[in-house]
Amino acid sequence: MEPSEITALEAQVRQLQAEISRLQAEKADWQAQVQQAQAQFQQLLPNALRELEERRQKLQISIEQLERRQERIQKEMRSTFAGSSQEIAVRVQGFKDYLRGALQDLVASVEELPLLPTPASAPVVNPEPAPVAPAPAKAAPLKLAAQTYADQVEVIEECLEQYRTQPDYYGPAWQLRRTFEPVHEERVRRWFLEQGGRGALRSLGSRLQNILVTSAIISILRQLYDIDLRVLVLANGPERLGEWRRGLQDCLGISRADFGADGGILLFEAAEPLAQKADRLEREDLVPLIVIDEGDGTVPVGLLQFPLWLTFAPDPKKMRQRLAEDDEFDFKLF
For residue range 6-22, what is the model confidence (pLDDT) as tens digits? Predict the structure, then answer.
């Protein structure tokens, strides 16, 4: 082999050795970079996992809050819809009952009107005297004021004692069927024995409580006057009349048939037709009891002529508060 060829081969060997050295250096550099990247990854991995875990927990809490909120909203929607539906049904039923009673009263009033003229009697020669029918016995007139129930103290006290100590929740109709407290007894006793069956009682704060007191009074009056008693309720609006009908029906164990012209209780929205009906009942020797729903503490003048009437006066504190609110509202208007 010639020297030139040997020199060329040696040059290639040296070049290859340099290339190998360079590649080994690059390999070492890459290995160092990989080790560094692995070290960094080992440092970043726990932090990333911790951050992911925190985000997962926050998302879980948010999901639970949203689920609770969704359940609450659905519950409110169901309750609100049910409450509104029930309120609408109560109002509609109260108006229907009031309208039925008003129509029955109107029919009874129309039946009492003389629609046909009385025919003139033809002249009769030597008429024979007609037999005189005996006059029907008339009920004793109702006494007034303190003398009204002075002779019935024992009956009234016996009824009150029974209502308070031995309530009969399944007793006969027209007898009080609800729990009777001393506060109710005090008002009933005052109305009978101190006010003589006519006057105002301080409201108990709710219409249901006032209806309970009225039911006890009606129950006692039924003991005294039996089927001759007629109850005439005056309230502002069909909704309140519906509450009175349901409350009396519940407290006295009566049915819808006991409301209307043929029953013992009539409902009125105005004082004038009530006064006319009470006047007709007195001419028929019946005993009307006028019950006025809680209002502003005033009683229509036309109803004061009747011996039995009951109304509920609002609490003076509430009246002053209401007047103050009205004055403040008027001041804001100006």
Answer: 888 888 888 898 899 88
Positive or negative: CA dihedral 182, 186, 189, 191? negative
The amino acid that residue 113 corresponds to is L
Tokens of residue 7, six digits: 């020199």
Other Cβ atoms closer than 10 A to 110: 9
Question: Which residue, chain included where needed, has tokens 């609450």?
Answer: 72
Cα-based torsion angle of the residue sequence 320, 326, 332, 334 in order, rounded to the nearest 10 degrees: -120
| Euclidean distance between CA atoms 270 and 288, whole angstroms | 16
Please state, in angstroms and rounded to a whole number, the distance separating the CA atoms of residues 295 and 327. 19
**296 contacts: CB under 8 Å, gap ≥ 6:** 314, 319
Per-residue pLDDT reduced to its tens digit, 272-300 = 999 999 999 999 999 999 999 987 667 88
- Neighbouring CB atoms inside 10 A of 221's CB total 22
